[in-house]
Design a protein that fits this description.
Distance between the termini: 23 Å
Number of helices: 1
CATH topology: Jelly Rolls
Order of helices and strands: HEEEEEEEE
CATH superfamily: Jelly Rolls
Oligomer: single chain
Number of strands: 8
Shape: globular
């Protein structure tokens, strides 16, 4: 059984950030579950263009409001608490936090190791 507390993640090497966002990486590849789980904050007013070419990501909103734009179709979806969006086709997308900080519970498969950094497309390389 694995038990984690967010308070133990904050300020540790599993707490990473960039311009307008921070990710608290709760479960990583080292836990051996085949997926990773993150508590992510996107600051109000932040816009990020992202494409995860090597990972599938699902996001469940628990706070704040925003929108996600599917770049291919140019369709915009509203995000608010209770909304889930999954990037099941490595979808290039634009994520915006429009009202308050957007707080997302994110699941990646394959699991992130925790050492990834964003590449020019906003995604992550596969790391061992």
């Amino acid at each position: 059984m694995i038990v984690k507390e967010l308070g133990d993640i904050i300020g540790s090497e599993r707490h990473v950030s960039g311009p307008g966002w921070e990710s608290r990486r709760i479960l990583l590849k080292a836990e051996g579950l085949g997926y990773s789980l993150h508590d992510t904050l996107v600051r109000e007013g932040t816009e990020m263009r992202i494409q995860f070419k090597n990972h599938i990501e699902s996001n469940y909103c628990i706070a704040g409001e925003g929108e996600v734009v599917d770049v291919k179709s140019n369709r915009t979806y509203k995000i608010r608490p209770g909304t889930l969006y999954a990037l099941d086709r490595h979808d290039e997308h634009i994520l915006r936090a429009t009202k308050g900080d957007l707080r997302l519970v994110c699941v990646f498969t394959p699991a992130l190791s925790g050492k990834e950094t964003h590449d020019p497309d906003g995604g992550y390389a596969l790391l061992d």
